[in-house]
Specification:
single chain; four-stranded antiparallel sheet; globular
Length: 352
């Protein structure tokens, strides 16, 4: 497999931590650093530009989890400013963008837990599965402390205490949740046998749901690729598959990367991690990324026949952009770079 890169017109606003999806022959994207803005690009008009779509009706938010179906795009949770609080918190609302009507509306459902940083995927047009997600109470408590801190030293004290906790102290979602749109019900169908992840890549190959790396606590990445299969009444079987670290011992794990399934293979690109965090954690340093600089990857990985290999490079190292799978590859919109710059570039990675 080789990767052919094609640039699209730049996004109208530099964007990261947003949501997006492919609806018919249009790409839709927005939120995150784009605020309530939402845009589309018509793939039938490659010489065109991004066009405005109806703006998002809810509060501005980062790191919401989205699911795309043939009917539209769903948005759940995220971090933003709830009018009831004077600090950023995990939001508990949900929205749906209808492709046919070109309209947003809020979903009349109550989230069972915060889904900030979660990974989600559609099983079909009305059933969605969710892995991971920050604990609302833990996240909100930290944001409240930081909003009330009287000095930078006080803020640092709160950060150090928060980051220096063991994995289980963060209370991230340890179940796999099912949302049924038709029934409007949430169900914790099973407990995740592995440590909860946030910012993980999630793809589906036939009946296999592959959850790739992500964080297990702030600053520390998982090194594992997990395979989940669901049988009758959601009976779960799982296994570890070959990980990148099995073949590249210096690998530190990836969060905020871009991923897609193409035939029976996986494309995984970009992402961010801290070099030295794994060694620090193994040595008992719970604040494993303290003093380390975040690294942004430009590597494109391919997983096929149980093996990972490097198959190309991104035009610029980045993470936290919008990843939209395509039948033959992956669209990458925006992202963040090493110097904190938010990107507006958009491109397609086509597997050949």
């Amino acid at each position: 497999m080789t990767i052919h890169l094609t640039f699209l017109p730049d996004f109208p606003i530099a964007i990261k931590n947003g949501v997006g999806g492919s609806l018919g022959r249009r790409l839709y994207a927005g939120l995150g650093s784009a605020g309530k803005h939402f845009f589309y690009f018509d793939l039938n008009q490659p010489g065109g530009h991004w066009q405005p779509a109806p703006g998002f009706p809810g509060a501005e938010r980062n790191d919401a989890v989205s699911v795309t179906t043939s009917e539209g795009l769903y948005v759940f949770s995220g971090a933003g400013n709830d009018p009831r609080h004077a600090y950023t918190s995990v939001l508990m609302d949900s929205y749906f963008f209808c492709a046919n009507k070109q309209q947003w509306h809020s979903l009349d459902t109550t989230l069972p837990l915060g889904l900030l940083g979660a990974s989600a995927i559609a099983v079909n047009d009305h059933q969605f599965l969710f892995w991971g997600g920050y604990c609302k109470e833990t996240f909100d408590a930290l944001m409240k402390q930081l909003s009330q801190a009287s000095s930078s030293d006080a803020s640092d004290k709160h950060i150090n205490a928060f980051m220096g906790q063991p994995i289980e102290a963060y209370g991230w979602n340890s179940h796999i949740w099912l949302y049924d749109v038709r029934k409007n019900t949430w169900e914790a169908i099973t407990r995740n046998p592995y440590p909860a992840n946030c910012g993980a890549a999630l793809v589906r190959i036939n009946d296999d749901f592959m959850l790739i790396e992500g964080e297990v606590k702030p600053g520390l990445r998982s090194l594992k690729t997990k395979c989940y299969q669901f049988g009758h009444q959601w009976r779960l079987t799982t296994k570890y598959t070959t990980s990148i670290a099995d073949q590249w011992s210096h690998h530190e794990g990836i969060a905020g990367g871009y991923a897609s399934a193409v035939d029976n293979s996986i494309i995984l690109a970009g992402g961010a991690y801290f070099i030295g965090s794994q060694a620090n954690f193994q040595q008992g340093k719970l604040y494993s990324h303290q003093g380390l600089r975040k690294h942004y990857s430009d590597t494109i990985w391919r997983y096929q026949n149980g093996e990972w290999e490097q198959t190309g490079k991104l035009p610029i190292p980045s993470a936290y952009g919008i990843s939209i799978p395509s039948q033959d590859g992956l669209y990458v919109l925006g992202g963040e770079t090493l110097d904190g710059q938010t990107l507006s570039c958009c491109y397609h990675l086509k597997a050949i």
